[in-house]
Amino acid sequence: MTAPAVRTVCGDVPPAGLGVTDAHDHLFLRSASLPGQELDDPAAALAELRAFAGEGGGAVAQWTPWGLGRGRAALPALSRRSGVHVIAATGVHQRAHYAAPERDRMPRDAEALAALFTRELTRGPVRAGMIKVAGSFHGLDAHAERSLTAAALAHRATGAPIGVHLEGGTAALDILDLLCGTHGVPPHRVLLGHLGRAPDLRTHLRAAECGAYLAYDGPSRANHATDWHLFDCLTTLAEAGHTDRLLLGGDTTTARARSADAGGEGPGPPFLLTRIRPRLERELGPDATRAILTANPARAFAAEWATG
From the Swiss-Prot or TrEMBL record, what is one GO molecular function term (predicted)? Predict the structure, then answer.
């Protein structure tokens, strides 16, 4: 059995070497749902990584999946120049994010999607280190069921962690039922993104009790309940004994939302360390802060990688 490792764009690294981690963000992104707001500037991506590193950041997980301009070929050089580990994603998002050419090229069944994911996790000079898929609003449509099934098949072939976009923060338990109940994915291999957009603490507690990781991401999003519920959520989960299930991410999806260092208006990934980390230390203490920013992502993104 191989030792657990985090698969970065520059190769596999020991989990302990990951460092302080932004567990959900984007350096590159192109979406049909965000016309004219592409993240496609390598110089800005490098500035963002350097600003994050300057605050003590060690790793960024980019959840941009197949077909959405993820800049995969540029990531290794950006990682080396900034000194920040970068975890890339395979997978697919909701169909609404894809323009016609990408929709037409997308494999049509779960087995073919799983084969695509597995190839990108196990072959080529720049390998993905996670699978990113998405639910739908308050449930699972046919595309979500197909892509989640494909993620489960690819996980079974490789051991890769699965990050899930929760639309509006909803359908977390439906997704765990499908991935873990139907397809047998271990819950600790599932990272649920955007839970803070629907701060239903009963659902959050049930997801944590199942063993999934809970990613609170997208600070200061004006159109979502994020910052103003964040510490209520984190405190409730910590007091219930689930500090080891918590992750934080920036989820920067537009150029305007990059940090000032990267040419945007913010807050960008450094905000996690300049503004959120001090509050974590005050309200939950240094041990919980280290767990959420360092120890938890090291476990969440590590896998005993199979060859596929």
Answer: zinc ion binding
